């Protein structure tokens, strides 16, 4: 019995450690219901606040949006009010880079406000979600910090990212896991454009580039 108990305890510790590593390495914040507006399906977008069939088709044609400010300009240009656009962002968004996001981008994150625009900037550079949890939960608590995480990302390191890291990038999938790893070491954006451009068009290359950084 003692041996069995020891084995179970060891297995539990190992499982917890693996879970911890998975969470620690993920670079795009875990979604609690918010999807990426650049990759969400037409059927999914149609279920969202203030979306019509015509608006969704125009949005899909316009994609990918460079950032959330560009999407916001599109939606308000189509007649949505600021409040209606924010309702939509409660369900779909374009992730903000924690290390380079502008105050204008951050202020479009639901419930972020000027305080988070200030705090996100203060603690740069962001390197892990443990850092985010520690610093941001001081102000809003862990539940609110978890909700904010689904709108932001810490750039994925092209030369050392794990498969799990890469798969957090919306729309990346196993093919990009393979290609990102095949062309290591990455040295320049031009190399990324050239090699990934063999598999997807220029707009998709630019969308993927938003989520990554070349590290030595």
Supply database-style keywords.
single chain; 216 residues; mainly alpha; two-stranded parallel sheet
Question: How would you characterize the overall build of this protein?
Answer:
The structure is a single chain. This protein is mainly alpha-helical. It has a domain at 35-153. The chain contains 13 helices and six strands. It has helices at 2-25, 42-45, 53-62, 68-77, 82-89, 103-106, 113-122, 129-140, 142-149, 163-167, 173-182, 189-196, 202-209; strands at 35-36, 92-93, 96-97, 152-153, 156-157, 212-213. It has a two-stranded parallel sheet with strand order 1-2. A two-stranded parallel sheet has the order 3-4. The longest helix has 24 residues, at 2-25. Mean pLDDT is 91; it is low at 5-24.
Helix/strand/pairing category = mainly alpha
Low-pLDDT segments: 5-24
Rg computed from alpha carbons, rounded to a whole number of angstroms: 19 Å
Count of extended strands: 6
* Average pLDDT reading: 91
Judging from the principal axes of the Cα atoms, what is the shape? globular
Q: How many separate helices?
A: 13
**What is the helix fraction of residues, given as a range?**
55-70%
Q: How is the biggest beta sheet arranged?
A: 2 strands, parallel
Secondary structure layout:
Blueprint: H1 2-25, E1 35-36, H2 42-45, H3 53-62, H4 68-77, H5 82-89, E2 92-93, E3 96-97, H6 103-106, H7 113-122, H8 129-140, H9 142-149, E4 152-153, E5 156-157, H10 163-167, H11 173-182, H12 189-196, H13 202-209, E6 212-213
Parallel strand pairs: 1-2, 3-4, 5-6
């Amino acid at each position: 019995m003692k041996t069995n108990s020891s084995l179970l305890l060891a297995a539990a510790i190992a499982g917890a450690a693996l879970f911890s590593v998975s969470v620690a390495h993920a670079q795009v914040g875990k979604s609690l219901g918010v999807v990426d507006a650049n990759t969400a399906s037409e059927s999914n977008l149609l279920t969202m606040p203030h979306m019509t069939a015509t608006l969704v088709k125009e949005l899909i044609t316009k994609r990918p949006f460079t950032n959330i400010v560009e999407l916001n300009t599109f939606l308000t240009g189509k007649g949505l009010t600021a409040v209606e656009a924010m309702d939509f962002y409660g369900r779909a968004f374009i992730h903000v880079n924690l290390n380079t996001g502008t105050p204008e981008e951050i202020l479009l994150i639901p419930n972020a406000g000027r305080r988070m625009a200030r705090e996100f900037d203060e603690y740069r550079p962001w390197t892990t979600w443990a850092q985010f949890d520690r610093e941001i939960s001081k102000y809003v608590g862990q539940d609110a910090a978890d909700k904010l995480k689904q709108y932001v990302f810490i750039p994925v390191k092209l030369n050392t990212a794990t498969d799990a890291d890469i798969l957090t990038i919306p729309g990346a999938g196993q093919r990009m896991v393979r290609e990102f790893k095949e062309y290591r070491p990455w040295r320049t954006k031009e190399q990324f454009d050239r090699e990934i451009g063999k598999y997807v068009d220029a707009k998709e290359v630019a969308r993927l580039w938003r989520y990554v950084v070349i590290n030595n």
